[in-house]
Amino acid sequence: MARWCFFVCMAVTCLLIAGCGDDEPVKKIDLSNREEITVIKPPAALTYAYLPQYSHNVSYKRHHLLVEYLSRATGLTIRQVFPDTFDEHINMVGRGEIDISFSNPYAYVQIARRYGARAFARIVEGKGEINFRGQVICRADNHRIKTPADLKGKRLIAVDAYSAGGYLYPWDWILEQGLRKKDFLEIAFAPGPGGKQEKVVMGVYSGKYDVGLIRERTLPILANKIDLKQIRILAHSRWYPGWVYAARRGLDPDILAKIKKALLALDMKIPEQRKILEKAGFTGVVPASDADYEAVRRLAASVESRD
Amino acid sequence: MQLFNKLSFRTKINLGIVAVILVFGVLLAFLVSRVAATAMSGEIKKRGMSLAQSLAPRATNSILALDFLRLKNMVDEVVASSDDIVYTFIQDIRGQVLSHNFKSGFPTMLKDANQIPPGASSHIQLLNAENELIYDFALPVMAGENRLGTVRVGLSRAKAEAAVHRLLLTIFAVSAGVALVAVGLGTLFASTVTRRLNVLRQSAEEMIKGNLALHISPRLERNCWEIRDCHKEECPAYGDTRRRCWNLPGVLCPECRDGSYEEKQAACRECLIYQLNAGDEIQSLAESFEVMAMTLDGHIQELEEAEKSLTRQQQLLKTILDVNPDLVSLQDENLVYQAVNPAFAQFCGWPENEILGRTCAPLFPSEQAAAHQAENMQILQTGGHKSREVPVDKDGEKRWLHMVKVPVYDGDRITGILMAARDITEIKQYQEQLIQSLKMEQLGRLSGGVAHEINTPLCVILGYAQMLLEDIPQDTESYEFLQIIEKQAQICRRIVSDLLSFSRHIESRPEEMDLNGSINEVLDLVRHSFKQDWIDIVPSLAPDLPAIIGDKEKLKQVWLNLLTNAVDSIGQDGTIWVGTRLDPQTNRVQVTVADNGSGIAPENLKKIFDPFFTTKAPGGGTGLGLSVSFGIIHDHQGTITALSPAPGEFWENFDPAKAPVGPGTVFILELPVSREKSLEETFTEAAPAGLPAADQNAV
Predict the structure, then answer these.
(1) pLDDT band at A8 (very low <50, low <70, confident <90, very high)
(2) Where are the alpha helices (DSSP H) in A206-293?
(3) A112 domain-assigned
(4) Which of A81, A140, B524, B575 is most exposed by smallest CB count within 10 Å?
C-alpha cells in the first residue's frame, strides 16, 4: 500500500514538475504617461525620385546606394522620395517636390511638356544599350492566343498609362497589329502604389488577365516568386530611348552640374560604384538632352491619335 | 483504511470512480492548462510575430513614402483585427513613432520598452502594464539590408489566457459531468454486482444456519435438454433446473467428456449449451456455490446418517458394556485407562469419569497395582495375552475373577491393553458344591455298603434279643437289659434303613394317584399321636385337585418326613397347616406344610437338604429325612422350597389361641400334574440331578 502511495505521489510530482513552465522576464511599464506624437518634417534636402514602376521597397533597394553616392559625391543632402504613382511622380515634379527625376521616356516627355523639366543624363543598360523595349506576355498554357489577332476580345493589363516599356512601347506594337482599345474585353492598369511591373506579371500569371504589357528585364525580377516558364512572351516592341535623369525647372545649375558630374562619373570598373550600378540596374550614365526623346514624343502622339 | 474497508462495495466503486475521474480531471486540467498556456503563449507569440511580420513589409513602402495615413490605416487595421491586440505602432529608424493606435497620446515608456538586440531579427518582451500582461513584439522594417524602422505589436496575454481558463472550466465541467455519469453508471453496475453478492451473502448465511436448500442461480430460459431436444431421462442433468450440466458428473451429452473436473470444464467451454447458458463470473460463482451447497447437503446428510449409525453403534456398544456384568477396561500404551464399563467402575469403587486418565495405581491396593503393572508391561513387550483366575477381597468377601488381558494393535504397533474380568465366585462355589456332592455320593455309597453289611448282623442281634425276651422272665434284670438291647437295635435298624433308603436308588413306580388321598392317609396315621403332644393338624386340601403321576408310597414318606420335622420343630402345643392347590398358570399342584415351630436359622436354611445335616440331639435323627424327601421330589420333577420364618399370610391359618413356639417354617412343594407336560414346561426350572437342595432353599 505504501509503495503504491509512493508511486502515485512520485507520478503526480513528476507531472507537476513537468507541467510547470518557465516564467518569462516581465518588464513593468506605465501606459498612463503619454505624449502627443508630432510628425517630424524631414530635413531640407535635394529630393531624388525613381518613377514607381516597381514597389517603393524595390525602388529603395535599387537607388538608395546611388542616392548615398550622390550625397557623398556632391556634398549635398539628398533624400529619396517615393511617389506612389506615375501621376504623382509627374505631379511632384511639377510641385517641385522632386528635384532629380529618374523616369521612363514617356513620363519624361510629360514632365518636360507640363513642368519644364529637362533631361541631363540617360542610363546605359546591359552592354552599352541606351534603348529598351517592351514585351507582350501571356500565360504559356494559353493556347487560345497564337497570333496577334487572337488578342482580340482578351483582357489586357498594362503597367501604367504613363509607362513607356510597360504600356507605350508594346501598345504601339498592338496598334501596329491592327488592334484597338475596343477590340479588348478589358484594358486595366496595375493598381496601387509601386510594384506595377510585378503586378502586371502577377495579373497574367494568376489568369486574371490574358495579356500583359511589361518592360523588358521585368521577368527576371520575379524569378524567385513565380515559375517563369508559365509566362510566354508574345512579342517585343521596337527599341526606344531608355530611362532618363531630368532636373526640375528652376533647379540650381550648380547643383545640377554636381549631380550630373557625379552620375557621369559612375564606372563599372570601380568596384564600389559597380555595386551601386548593379543595384540600380544599369551599367552607366551618359549625358542626354531633351532632343534625345523626340522619338518618344512622336510615338506618344501617334499612339494617342490611334486610340 | 479501516473506515474504507467498512464501506459498502457500491460506495467503494463510486468513490474509486470519482477519485479516478477527479484525479485525472485535475491532472488533465493542470497539464492541459500548462500545455495550453504554453501553447497559447507560443500561439500568441507566433500570432504577434505573424502580425508584425505581415505589417512590417507593408509598412516599408509607407515609411519610405512617409505615408502616415496609410501607416495609420495599417495600424488601425491590425488593432481592429482582434480584441486581444492592445496596441500597434510603427517607429522609424531613430525610434520616432510614426503611427500608433493610442487615441490620447502615446505612452512614453512604450517606445523603448522592447529593443531588438543587435544581430537579432526580432524580439518579444513581456510587459506588465497596470497588472495586464502584454506580449510586445518588435520587428524591424527592412528595405533590403537596410532597416527603416520597427513595427511594434502588443498582445494581451490575459485575454489569451481567458481562452485557457475557458478551456479549464470546460474540462472541469466535463470532468464533473463525466464523474456524475460515471457515478450513476457505477452505481448501476455496482448495484448489479452488489445485489447478486448480497444474494450470495444471504445464501452463505443460510448455509451457516444450516439451510442448504439454496436457490441462487437464475432460472434458465432454455435448459440443456430443451436446447438439445434430448429425452435422456437417465441423464443426471435432465430435469435438473437448479444445477448446470457442466457442473454435474456423468452427463450423457456426446460432447461431455469424462475425467477430472478440469478436463470436463475444458470440454464444456466449447459446448453450445455452456456458451448459451453460461453467465458472468458472479453467476458462475453462484452456480458453483449452489452446487457446493447441494453437494455439501448431500455430504452432510451422509454424515448425519453415518453419525446416527455411529451413535447407534456407540449406544449399542455402550449398552453392551454397561449391562455386561464382566469388568471391561481399555488402557493405552502408557497404561492409562481410556475406557471402562460401569461394572469395572463399580468394582473399583470409583466413578467412571474419574478412572479415565488414571493408571491402576490409585484404583487398586499397591500389591495388586504392582502386579497389574508388571503384567501389563509384559503384555506390551511380548504381545502375548494373559488369562488367569484371581482371588480378590471385595467388601470383606472373597471373590474370584477370571481375568483376560489381550494386547490391542494398531497395525503392527501395540497401542493398548483390553482387559475383561468375569466374577466366577458362584462358579467356584458350584465347583466346591460339586466336589462336596461327589464326596457325599461316595459317602452315600459307602454308607449304603456299610449299612447293608451291618443290617444282617443287626437283624441277628435284634432277632436273638427278641427271642431271649420271650424266654426270659420280664422281672429280671436280664430282661431289662435285653429290652435295652432290642430298643437300641431298633434305633440302629432305623438308621440303617434310612441309610439304605438314601443310598439305594429304588426304582419308582409312577402311576396316576390322588394327591389329597395320600396326604389324608398320612394325616390319619399321625393325627392321633400328634394329638398327644397337643399339636393340631389343620388340613386345607383343594377338593378339585387333579390326579398326578407319582409314586404314592414315596410321596407318603415325604409327607411323613415333613410332618415329623414340623412336630420336632414345634415340640408341644402347636399347629401344623397342610394345604394343597392347583396353580393354573403353571399347571402344577402345590403342597404346603407350615408350622409355627421354632423355625430354621438363616445360616442353616441352605443346609437343611444336605445329607446328615441335623440340628437334633444325637440319637434324635439321622439328618437324612429332608435329603431323602428332596431326592423323591426331584425324581417327580418337582421342587421343594423352605421358608423361615413363615410369611405372614400363613399365620392366619394357625390357631391364635395357641402361642407360637417360634417364627415357624413353611415347606412348599410343587409337582407337575402331567409328567410329560411338566418336563416340557419346567425344563429350565429342574435342578440338575445329584445337586444338593440348597439351590431350592435359596429361592
Answers:
(1) low
(2) 253-264, 271-280
(3) yes
(4) B524
> What amino acid is encoded at A302 in this protein?
S
pLDDT at B278 over 70: yes
Evaluate whether B409 touches B416 at the Cβ level (below 8 Å). Answer: no
Cross-chain residue pair B109–A80, CB shorter than 8 Å: no
Answer with the one of A200, A217, A238 that is the final residue of a domain: A238
pLDDT of B88? 92
Please state, in angstroms and rounded to a whole number, the distance separating the CA atoms of residues B551 and B631: 13
CB contact under 8 A, B107 and A33: yes
Domain of residue A287, residue span: 46-130+241-306
Q: How far is A237 from chain B (nearest CA, A)?
A: 31
- The neighbour count for residue B635, using CB atoms within 10 Å, is 17
- Report, in angstroms and rounded to the nearest whole number, the Rg of chain B calculated over CA atoms: 65
Cell of B689: 440331578
Which CATH class for the B4-168 domain? alpha beta
Least CB–CB distance from B65: residue in A16, A26, A84: A84
ipTM of predicted assembly, 2 dp: 0.73
Spatial CA neighbour of B597 closest among B574, B616, B580: B574
- Which of B37, B104, B143 shows the shortest C-beta gap to A21? B37
Q: What are the C-alpha distances in Å from A287 to residues A121, A259, A284?
A: 4, 12, 10
Query: pLDDT per residue over A253-287, tens digit each?
Result: 999 999 999 999 999 999 999 999 999 989 999 99
Residues 36-75 of chain A with CB under 8 A from chain B are: 36-37, 39-40, 42, 55-57, 59-61, 64
Question: Looking at chain A, which runs of residues are DSSP E strands?
Answer: 26-29, 34-35, 46-50, 78-81, 100-103, 118-124, 131-132, 134-139, 155-158, 186-189, 211-215, 231-236, 240-241, 244-247, 284-287
B47 at interface of A, judged by CB pairs closer than 8 A: no
Residues A51 and A171 in one domain: no
Residue B126 distance to chain A (closest CA, Å): 5
CATH of the domain at A187: 3.40.190.10
Over residues A148-190, the pLDDT tens digits come to 999 999 999 999 888 888 998 999 999 999 999 899 999 999 9
Same domain, A68 and A123: yes
Chain A, 189 to 248: residues with Cβ < 8 Å from chain B are: 193-194
Q: For residue A296, give how far its alpha carbon lies from the nearest alpha carbon of chain B (Å).
A: 29
Residue A260 lies in a domain: yes
- Is residue A269 one of the residues assigned to a domain? yes
Q: Which of B13, B12, B18, B14 is nearest to B177 (CA)?
A: B18
A253 with A95: CB under 8 angstroms? Answer: no
Does A30 contact B at CB distance below 8 Å? yes
For A194, name the nearest residue in chain B, comparing CA atoms only.
B61
What is the spatial distance between Cα B606 and Cα B697, in angstroms, rounded to a whole number? 6
Interface list for A 79-118 with B (CB within 8 A): 80-84
